[in-house]
Structure formats: structure tokens, C-alpha cells
Amino acid sequence: MSNPRKNIRLKAMDFLARREYSRCELQKKLQQKFPGNEDIASVLDELIVDGLQSDSRFTDSFLRLRVNAGYGPQYIRAELRQRGVTEDIVEEAFSDLSVDWFDVAQQLFSKKFSDQDMSDAKLRAKCLRYFQYKGFTFDHIRGLL
């Protein structure tokens, strides 16, 4: 006879072996795999105690990934909230992060718009919308334009 608690833990460790997950994400994945099982929350608590799952570690990894992909702070914060990371952990990760958001925006601008004439109002509006979508603040965008 199989032990459902053990199966939940093994599946969670299998997920975590591939990449970091927030507790909320991992809980959703496990609930899909083991619907109606009440042991999921206690297994997740054990994984946290054992150091196998950490929202802080997930946030740090996710932040670096998104910054390298050219996303701004507002977009990243919203994504982390959607993934169930608490505001305290998000704030701590952002305060520990040494990123020059103007530099990130400038690199993205150079890659996307460097060869275009920014005196055209339609192009400037397109550029503004693009950087808003990417999660940059108006200060960052104004610095570019």
C-alpha cells in the first residue's frame, strides 16, 4: 500500500528539482496532482523546515531571471504577487537587489529602438506603451526619451 504523504513529498521534490517554486505555486500543482488531499499543507511546511522550498530563494531567482529578460520593477512585482509571494519578501528581495533600472531600460531601448527616429510622435507613443507594458516607471521612460 502506498503512503499518500510520501507520494506528495516525492512529487513536490520532483517539481523543486527542476526549478524553484513559490509555496503557492507548488501547492496549486500538488492540488492538481492529488485533489482533495489534506496532507499537502503539512508536507509543504516540512519542505520549508527542511530548506527544500523557500519563497525568498524563489523570489531572488525569479527576480534575476526577469531583470535579465528586460522587465521593469512594476511588472516583476505584479508577477510575484500573482505567484503568491508576500509583500515583505518582495520588498526584501528588491532592497537586496543592486539593479540600475535606468540601465536595464537603456539596454532594452538600444536593442529595440536604437536605429529608429524618436522625433516621430507615433513611434514615441509606441515606445512609451512598450516600456509601460514591460513594467518601467514613467521616470525610467522619461530618462530614455
From TrEMBL:
The gene is recX_2. Residues 10-47 form the RecX first three-helical domain. Pfam families: RecX_HTH1, RecX_HTH2, RecX_HTH3. Keywords: Cytoplasm. GO terms for biological process: regulation of DNA repair. GO terms for cellular component: cytoplasm. It comes from Zhongshania aliphaticivorans. PANTHER family: REGULATORY PROTEIN RECX FAMILY PROTEIN. It comes from the Bacteria. InterPro entries: RecX_HTH_1st, RecX_HTH_2nd, RecX_HTH_3rd, Regulatory_RecX, WH-like_DNA-bd_sf. The keyword Ribonucleoprotein does not apply. This is Regulatory protein RecX. It is found in: Cytoplasm. Residues 54-93 form the RecX second three-helical domain. HAMAP family: RecX (MF_01114). Belongs to the RecX family.
